Structure formats: structure tokens, C-alpha cells
């Protein structure tokens, strides 16, 4: 990326301060534009390598409209804005900027964001070359990746396969997005196992299962005596993954104070154990979440700079209900697996059972389908066909007191409360709420805290 920057900002003092920061840091600054029309003239005359772009400008056009034109010319840009509300953020994000700087600016934030933008631009150019040449090969043997653990023949799945190949050949961070049960860890493992780091460790971390008080020590380690109870030195998960890959599952659950430390790992390639000194680390980061990170950013629960640093190469996994052509291949594969494992003579599904599988919405996605097939195999008395699929009891769409359809968060809260009530607020152990919900007890406690659920005494 060229070391020449255009500032598009209609506030003179802020534009002047930005110029001073950039020039002091060694950047060349073009003439300052205060409107889209002025910016277009300067771009044609001075050809900047990057644009710092205010969203609201003089004139009848916005920075978002200019961003669309910059995208066509392959000029990277960073938004400048005092307005970080959800709707503005959503509109701006659709233009795929390299980041956001929220006013008032701090010098170190400006320079850090420019470094991020430079790295992102290099990575995007490299990934674009791979995609254009249809490179879906590993670094070692240049073979096309097939059968990476996700079963099916849908076009969506074939596209995911292509993305896995591109990601495996690169070194960039990867962010895997999708609902629970869609196979995010399967994709992460496929990327690692087909990369140049395949012979090194893959360390999986469930961020939702780590308590806020221990997560820093768990991720980065600590020195002996660094805090009360630290009787021994602890090697953190990042060091355990040295020269390999770390998979941060449910990264959207990570506390904000830890997010800044993760950002340092991404930017500086270094960690700092509790009570220790900073040290360089060579590790590839793959993250995943079932949350809408844009909403988390707008709500202040997820750092904007970390979001953009992770969002280098996103892979969106579609829910099973949106790729119905994969339902039967998955079901038939796991029928064979469970029939063999349990010495059952079941060989397939009846037509009625197939229709039942195809007509169900699968809110738990592939994970729910696998569990249901296993249960159906165990319950099958006949030697050949599973004729009856026992689906979860159907429920009416829930509404709140005003008659409006409840949000996913409201439904989740009500469902957890219902389960807690049924098991007399027992969380741990067999028959506890975590067992009934089929999630880790620490994950359940984290969700309860986030949803404001505490034990009620009548």
C-alpha cells in the first residue's frame, strides 16, 4: 500500500490535527478534502494509497457514497466518525472498510489503525490472487481439499470447501461465523490440518467456558508467585499452540479487558504472561462465534479494532435449514456410523422418515441431526428401516405480553429459566440444567450472567 494518505474531513481542526499526527509519523498527506467532490478531484490528481474518510461531509453526498467509488478503484479506506450508532455502522460496514476511527482520535489509535489497514490490504491482495487463480491447495502438496468432515453436496458446502483451501494456504486470521451446531470447529480443524502448520499443535479454547477471573491466566499463562494461589508457573494456551494454530471458539464471549490483549497478539505477535515479560509468539489465530459481532460492537461489548483485525477472512456457515439437500446425506452417513458402533442391522430410512427429516427446521443444526440419528438407531427394533423419527415436541411461536414475537435473546432466557425450574435450579451433574441443555456448566453460568438470570425465591 502506498505511503500517501488523503484526509476527507469537513472539520478544519480535526483535519489539521490528523495531518500533524500523520506527517510526524512519516506519512505523506495529500491536500485535505471537505466534500466528496473535492475528494474525487484530489484522488485523480494525487493518487493516494489510503483514505481517511469522514461519514458526514459538506455537500449533498456522504462518505459512504464516496466509499463505494473508492472500492471500485481498489483504494483502501478507514472511516472517521463521531457517530457509531447501530444503523450508521451497519450501512458503513456494507462498503467493507479497513476500519473505523471514532472521534475524538488518539494518536496511538490512529497509527495502530493505519498499521492494521496496511496489513489487511496486503492480506486481501494475497487472498484475492489465490481466489482468482482458484487456488485451493495446501502449501505442501497442492492437492484440492475434499471430505473435510462436513458431509453433503450443496453448492454452499462446495463454496465452504473452496474457502477452506484458500484459508489453509494463507497465514491470515480467520473468523468463522454461524449458528450453534453448524460445524465451526470442524472447519477450523480442516484449515489447520491442510495448512503448513498441520504437524504442529491445534489448541482449542472455549472462551465461553472460561471464567473472567481465570481467562487471562488460561490464555497467556502466569509466573510462579505472580498472584495469590500461583504456586507454579503456568504455560498459557497461546504458548501451547506455538508454531501451530489456536482456535478461539465463541470469541464473542471474551471479556472486553481481555480483547485488548488478544489485539496485541494479532498486531505485535507477542504475549505477556501475568507477572512475566513480553515475548514473541508464532501462532495462527482462528476464531469463531455464533453472535452478531456488529451488534456486539454497537453495544460496546466487542472492540471495533479487534473486530476488523479478525475480519480478514470471514467464513459464514449456513444453517442446516438453508441447505436441505445436505440433510439426507448427513443422516445416512451417521446412520451407518451408529449402526456399526452399536451392532445394529439398520440400513436406511423409510420414505416417511426421510420426509420427516426434510420437513423439520433443525434449530440445533447438524449437531441436533447427529444426536437424533443416534437416538433413532438405538430405538430402532426392526432389522432394516427406521420408520419413525422422534422429533422434539413442536412449540408455538412465543410472544411477549404485548403480543409481539419474542426475540432470540428473550426466548433463550425463558427457555433457560424453564429448564432451571424443572430441575430445581440444579446446574451441575446428571439431571442438572447444563446436562439437560447439553452444554458445559460454565457456559450455562456465563449465559445466565449475561441474560441477568439469578435464583428466585418465591
Automatic annotation (TrEMBL):
Residues 4-118 form the Response regulatory domain. Pfam families: AAA_lid_14, Response_reg, Sigma54_activat. GO terms for molecular function: ATP binding; DNA binding. GO terms for biological process: phosphorelay signal transduction system; regulation of DNA-templated transcription. Residues 150-378 form the Sigma-54 factor interaction domain. Keywords: ATP-binding, DNA-binding, Nucleotide-binding, Phosphoprotein, Transcription, Transcription regulation. PROSITE patterns: RESPONSE_REGULATORY, SIGMA54_INTERACT_1, SIGMA54_INTERACT_2, SIGMA54_INTERACT_3, SIGMA54_INTERACT_4. InterPro entries: AAA+_ATPase (IPR003593), AAA_lid_NorR (IPR058031), CheY-like_superfamily (IPR011006), Homeodomain-like_sf (IPR009057), P-loop_NTPase (IPR027417), Sig_transdc_resp-reg_receiver (IPR001789), Sigma_54_int (IPR002078), Sigma_54_int_dom_ATP-bd_1 (IPR025662). The modification 4-aspartylphosphate is found at residue 54. PANTHER family: PTS-DEPENDENT DIHYDROXYACETONE KINASE OPERON REGULATORY PROTEIN-RELATED, TRANSCRIPTIONAL REGULATORY PROTEIN. This is Sigma-54-dependent Fis family transcriptional regulator.
